[in-house]
Write a structure and sequence with these properties.
Blueprint lengths: L11 H23 L3 H32 L4 H36 L4 H33 L2
Length: about 150
């Protein structure tokens, strides 16, 4: 929409490459979700994390560039920054979730261990904040598309 409206100058070829890349990323995610092989799940998760990190840097950097150069409407540059913030929160979510996953695996072996349950609950606390941040940035991005 931004390209067809003239707000961003992106060629059809670049848009096609972006759509193809997004489709490949989605296929990698689904491969990991649907596989029962832990090796496939782990490699898919690592690829997803790396792509998330790259997108956090690229989209956030692009949003900062568009906002500071002044040729793009502020609402659109801020929308792109909000999407970049979603990627950043996603990277943070993966980092914060790792300790909780390790504790969850330990709880699978000893589910009645009160200290493990307490540690698991404590490890999940920052995860909730990252998830709420993703929702907040998504609402901001959506709102910036409606309210110009």
């Amino acid at each position: 929409m931004a390209a067809t409206s003239g707000w961003l100058d992106i060629s059809g070829t670049v848009l096609g490459i972006l759509w193809l890349s997004a489709g490949m990323w989605l296929a990698i995610l689904w491969r990991g979700f649907l596989s029962t092989d832990p090796t496939v799940q782990e490699s898919s998760a690592k690829i997803n994390w790396a792509l998330n990190l790259v997108m956090a840097l690229v989209v956030s950097g692009g949003g900062i560039y568009l906002f500071t150069q002044g040729k793009t409407p502020d609402w659109l540059a801020l929308k792109i920054l909000a999407v970049g913030a979603i990627f950043c929160a996603g990277v943070l979510l993966d980092l914060l979730f790792k300790p909780a996953v390790d504790l969850f695996l330990a709880l699978a072996e000893t589910p009645d261990d009160a200290s493990l349950n307490a540690a698991y609950s404590q490890a999940l606390s920052p995860v909730y904040i990252a998830v709420l941040a993703i929702y907040a940035f998504a609402l901001i991005a959506a709102g910036l598309g409606v309210v110009k």
